[in-house]
Amino acid sequence: MESMWHYVKNGTEKLGPVPESELKSLVDSGRINPTDLVWSEGMTDWQPYNTLPALGGEMEALLAAPVAAGKYEVPPGLGGWLQFVGVIHIIYGALTCLGGLLMVLTVVAPLLYIPMGVLFILIGTACFGAKSALVGIVQVDAATELFLLKIKKYMMLYGILFIIGIVLTVLIIVGAIIMVAVLGMNMESLIPSGMP
Fold it and tell me: Cα Rg for the chain, rounded, in angstroms?
């Protein structure tokens, strides 16, 4: 069962109780400010909504937790994931451009593959530029730290997706080679010995 919450609107008007989900939607819709006071059974005193990680979610938890220290940092590992995704995009872009050039006789393929390859290379170089920009940053504000955490998560998932794609591609190629070898051997056994 959801916990019930009381809240103060406009600094004076005490309202509630309302279920936790309704309180969150009031804040999300802007009808209550994240800094307005809230109270629930078991609390010793009224507290601002955004200081309660259980209510406010990631952003408010980040805003509330390190205030005493006053220090927010660039997430560790973000630069490495940016570099990894950048390298993969540059390699993929170069291979895509090469594929377009090799299919020059089809006329249409180069028109598709070369611009796509160039875009992949640009994405890769943008990742390297972002990694370089992180080098000089020591401290950031809470909102920027949250944003960088989301970027790191995106880069990790994107990098893992590329790794899975590479593994699947290799497995498909190996499987195709094995099938051709097996079918090739079987085809030879199907051809009668007297036939050319």
Answer: 29
Per-domain residue ranges of the chain: 4-67, 78-190
Nearest to 13 by CA among 30, 37, 34: 37
Task: Please state at what angle helix 78-102 crosses helix 108-134, rounded to 10 degrees.
Answer: 160
Cβ distance 1 to 18 under 8 Å? Answer: no
Q: Looking at residue 118, what is its pLDDT?
A: 92
Q: What is the pLDDT of residues 117-136, one digit of tens each?
A: 899 999 999 988 888 888 77
Instruction: Determine the Cα–Cα distance for residues 95 and 91; give it in Å rounded to an integer.
Output: 6
- Assign domain 4-67 to its CATH superfamily: GYF domain (3.30.1490.40)
pLDDT tens-digit map of 93-102: 898 888 888 8
Phi, psi angles (nearest 5°) of residue 15: -125, 165
The CA distance from 142 to 99, in Å, is 44
Residues 6+ apart with CB under 8 A from 9: 15, 31, 32, 36
pTM reported for the whole predicted model: 0.51
Q: 36 and 15 in contact (C-beta within 8 Å)?
A: no
Distance CA 167, CA 165 (A): 6
CA distance 53 to 119: 40
Distance CA 75, CA 77 (A): 6
